[in-house]
Design brief:
By secondary structure, the chain is an alpha+beta fold. The protein contains 3 helices and 12 strands; from the N terminus they run αβββββββββαβββα. Strands 1, 2, 3, 4, 5, 6, 7, 8, 9, 10, 11 and 12 form a 12-stranded antiparallel sheet that branches. Bound molecules: calcium ion (2 copies). The site of one calcium ion has 6 residues, from β10.
């Protein structure tokens, strides 16, 4: 094998490793909604449901989306991030607002939640009880982004980039980011239903990172290094 061919082959292998990683879209690692109804209690878990919903009928019904992304496989520039949600139905025009759970919430365990047991009463960012309402704690960030919902229109809804979202993601130290999304507009029975990963991973909430880089899986690195080693062996044999 000629040296130029070897180098070209190695270049294609190594090039493939980096080119394929531009722009990262993360799917949720956990998703649920917190329920705090007047006529039920605030300890009902919905982490295995195929849909999650935002509801707001003040003093009667408050449902809050709660979902997490795993940033451990991502590196580089996290700016201009946006969140996308797939609505299966909507009721009422309104603005959904997204908050984050701050690093270190609940003694560092606030983001390490299990979707099969997470409920309104034990979720970081919210004070327990308060039927039909919610009360934020200091673990809940300011509004990071918003999205406007259309009355009756299903489909993909995405936030736009904000500096508050940039700052929140830049401050992450544990590789986990949890968001809470809720409706706080005029009282009037807002209800928006979204897909979860249990229904279809591709239709779950997404975190879009236009400038980030995916860290290659160890298996991928091993595959490419293995290919490179094989080329070297072949080259040396031909050179003898
Ligand atoms: Ca879930
Ligand atoms: Ca975090």
């Amino acid at each position: 094998m000629k040296k130029t061919l070897l180098l070209a082959s190695a270049g294609i292998l190594l090039g493939g490793m980096t080119v394929a990683q531009a722009q990262v879209t993360l799917l949720v690692s956990a998703d649920t909604y917190l329920v705090n109804d007047f006529d039920a209690d605030a300890s009902l878990a919905h982490g295995t449901d195929t849909s999650m919903e935002i509801r707001s009928l003040r003093d009667r019904r408050m449902h809050i989306l709660y979902f997490r992304f795993d940033l451990s496989g991502v590196t580089g520039d996290l700016s201009d991030a946006t969140i996308s949600l797939n609505a299966t139905s909507s009721k009422k025009n309104g603005t959904v607002q997204f908050h984050g759970i701050l690093d270190g919430a609940l003694g560092g365990q606030g983001e390490n939640w299990d979707e099969s047991t997470l409920v309104y009463n034990n979720a970081a960012g919210f004070s327990p009880t308060y039927p039909g309402q919610y009360v934020a704690t200091s673990d809940l960030s300011a509004i990071l982004a918003t999205v406007d919902m259309s009355d009756g229109a299903p489909g993909l809804y995405s936030t736009t980039a904000t500096t508050t979202m940039d700052d929140f993601l830049a401050a992450d130290t544990n590789g986990m980011v949890t968001f809470a999304a809720l409706y706080t507009g005029p009282n009037g029975n807002a209800r928006y239903v979204f897909s979860t990963k249990e229904a279809d991973a591709a239709l779950s909430a997404q975190l879009n990172l236009p400038y980030a880089t995916a860290v290659p899986e160890p298996a991928t690195v091993a595959f490419f290094l293995g290919g490179f080693s094989l080329l070297l062996v072949l080259y040396r044999r031909r050179s003898r």
